[in-house]
Design goal:
Layout (H helix, E strand, L loop, with lengths): L2 H26 L8 H23 L7 H21 L2 H18 L1
Helix pairs in contact: 3-4
């Protein structure tokens, strides 16, 4: 098998697996059968858990010696918190903080 065919086959397998994993919850929990309580609990806790993981990941390598980079990072974290408290929208909070962080990195 040449490398082009192998690459196309690998992409198709990845696409099929991704599609199957995305469709599975709708197939399993549709109709009369409701979502199990454990899955419902996870669905309620996941946004906060994702934010917590992102905060820890962003702040774990915060340089104490580089004040400009530390200020940019902490300002972006503050923007995420403010956006989330204001709009209560996880996607908006993450996107807004990321855009602000990247913009400040380019400006400063």
């Amino acid at each position: 098998m040449n490398s082009t065919a192998y690459t196309i086959l690998a992409i198709l397998v990845c696409a099929a697996c991704t599609f199957a994993l995305r469709v599975a919850p709708f197939a399993l929990f549709s109709g009369k059968r409701g979502m199990p309580p454990a899955v419902r609990r996870l669905a309620m806790k996941m946004p906060a858990a994702i934010i917590a993981v992102l905060v820890v990941y962003c702040l774990k390598g915060l340089p104490a010696s580089d004040a400009a980079h530390a200020t940019i990072t902490l300002g972006s974290v503050a923007a995420v918190v403010a956006l989330h408290l204001w709009k209560r929208n996880t996607l908006l909070s993450i996107a807004g903080g990321t855009i602000l962080y990247m913009a400040l990195l380019r400006i400063i």
